[in-house]
Amino acid sequence: MISRRLLRIKVLKVLFAHIKSGNQLQLATEKELAFSINKTYDLYHYILLLMVKIGDYAQNRIDIGKHKYLPTEEEKNPNTKFVDNTVIKLLRQNKILQNYVNREKLSWDDSTELLKKIYNSMANSDYYKKYMLNDKHSFAEDKQLICKILEYEIEDLDYIYALLEEKNIYWIDDLEFVLSMSIKTVKSFKANQDSYTELLPLYNDETDAKFAIRLLRRVLADYDKTEIIIDEYTKNWDLERLAFMDTLILQMLLAEAREFPEIPVNVSIDEYLEIAKYFSSPTSSAFVNGVADKIISKEIKEKQIIKYSENISN
User: Is 116 left (phi over 0), alpha (psi -120 to 50) or beta?
Assistant: First the structure.
């Protein structure tokens, strides 16, 4: 399921576009947010499908080797342990996955070069060689192999980022989160599961489903008021340091602190400090932390921010 941090990032991006455009309707921004979140779920299914296609690529190499005019002994009697991997078979047979990728027209058919790069990198790795040389074939070992492919072969492959961006502009920052979702899915698989076994849902629960839209609406509702408050607390800051992204992240942090009494302040602050490190300048986290602490402390005293319990985890 999609994480709260990724939902925050999705909100940040649509807010940035909304405010910079100057004339975009809020309804259009809300629709764009929903579309962006749904595209992440597309990528989740797309990555699971990739595991199947890597298996197909390996099978195709075996078939080509067998039909050579003068095949080697290895080509005549290939090691089929990888193409017989139980997890790949379960993914290939999963009707939920099949129906989703067919409905959304997700395909790796035009990505042979990517499949080749992933396969060659995998085939030269120590973990794959160890797997292939082990005569025993267990479901646990099969799951472990697919998790290692997801963990080691995809995220650091520069080629895949260009390909994903070309296919969908919303995917470029989603890959790390989606790979984590995919690994969690594989780890949950059972050897005897049927073809209609459910995959991970888009949201963890109904609260998460409403989180992003509530956050977006609260930022926009408070935007002008919060801008004035931020100005009051940044008079001693170098104006050149106050990048628009910094103040937007601060807007979101303050909106979240006000809107969600169940989320502890320290959780919200930690989340936005990490987002600031990734999306803004090296000094951004210090700015966000320093200004937010003062504003939130004041608003808690004035009961503009109310928290149920600082012991509730996010």
Answer: alpha
Distance separating alpha carbons of residues 103 and 182, to the nearest angstrom: 20
**Residue 130: how many CA atoms within 13 Å on its side-chain side?**
8
Per DSSP, the chain holds a count of helices (H) and strands (E) of 14, 0
Cα–Cα distance, 172 to 145 (Å, whole number)? 25
CATH (domain of 244): 1.10.940.10
* Whether 179 and 213 share a structural domain: no
User: Within this chain, do residues 78 and 137 fall inside the same structural domain, yes or no?
Assistant: yes
Residue 199 lies in a domain: no
Residue 52 and residue 163 share a domain = yes
- Tell me the pLDDT tens digit for each residue of 17-51: 999 998 789 999 999 999 999 999 999 999 999 99
Token look-up 């989740």 returns 44
Give the number of domains in the chain: 2
Task: Give the CA distances from residue 270 to residues 15, 277, 287, in Å, rounded to whole numbers and listed in that order.
Answer: 20, 11, 13
What 8-state DSSP symbol labels residue 169? G
Q: What are the pLDDT digits (tens) for 247-286? A: 999 999 999 999 999 999 999 999 999 999 988 887 888 8
Domain that holds residue 211: 206-301
Residue 30 belongs to a domain: no
Residue 22 backbone zone (phi > 0: left; psi -120 to 50: alpha; other: beta) = left
Work out the widest C-alpha separation in the chain, in whole angstroms: 83
For 92, 182, 235, 290, the CA distances from 185, given in Å and listed in that order, are: 14, 5, 49, 39
Predicted TM-score (pTM) of this structure: 0.91
262 phi, psi to nearest 5 deg: -80, -15
Q: Are 178 and 146 part of one and the same domain?
A: yes
